[in-house]
């Protein structure tokens, strides 16, 4: 009888572990399912005068920005606030160059510029704040 009680207790605890794992999977899946995907510049894509594109939109950490552009004419470079203001990319930073780049937003302000000569200065830059 004592052995049966011990076995029943073992079954109960393994059931609780399974339930906890299922709940964890549901919670993780729910958080990913809530992430939104935004095309920078909407239909016009990543181009000049996209600095105002984020206005009126609510971004969250984990949301994805898609930069669509002609890779022969533009690129995307993640930069700091200083790089955004000065339109300069730090040495060693790798530009995104596929023409269909996906970037997951981090909490806070995320800054991007085009590093082709004169493009950032002409308005090809965007700052997106993610809550």
From TrEMBL:
Q: Which Gene3D superfamilies match?
A: Cupredoxins - blue copper proteins
Instruction: Report if keyword rRNA-binding is assigned.
Output: no
Task: Name the CDD domains for this protein.
Answer: Plantacyanin
Q: Quote a single Gene Ontology cellular component term.
A: plasma membrane
GO MF terms here are: electron transfer activity; metal ion binding
Q: Which residues form the Phytocyanin domain?
A: 36-131
Organism, by scientific name, is Zea mays (Maize)
User: Is-annotated flag, keyword Signal?
Assistant: yes
User: In the record, which residues are listed under signal peptide?
Assistant: 1-33
Q: What is this protein called?
A: Plantacyanin
Designated gene of the protein: LOC100286063
**What InterPro entries does this protein's entry cite?**
BlueCu_1_BS, Cupredoxin, Phytocyanin-like, Phytocyanin_dom, Plantacyanin
**Entries under Pfam families matching the protein:** Cu_bind_like
Keyword field: Copper, Disulfide bond, Metal-binding, Signal
């Amino acid at each position: 009888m004592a052995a049966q009680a011990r076995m029943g207790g073992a079954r109960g605890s393994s059931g609780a572990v399974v339930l906890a794992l299922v709940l964890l999977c549901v919670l993780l899946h729910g958080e990913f399912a809530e992430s939104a995907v935004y095309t920078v510049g909407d239909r016009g894509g990543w181009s000049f005068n996209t600095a105002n594109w984020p206005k009126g939109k609510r971004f969250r950490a984990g949301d994805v920005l898609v930069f669509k552009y002609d890779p022969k004419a533009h690129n995307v470079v993640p930069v700091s606030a200083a790089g955004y203001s000065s339109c300069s990319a730090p040495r060693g930073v790798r530009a995104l160059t596929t023409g269909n780049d996906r970037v997951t937003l981090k909490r806070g302000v995320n800054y991007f510029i085009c590093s082709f000569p004169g493009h950032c200065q002409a308005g090809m830059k965007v700052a997106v704040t993610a809550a």
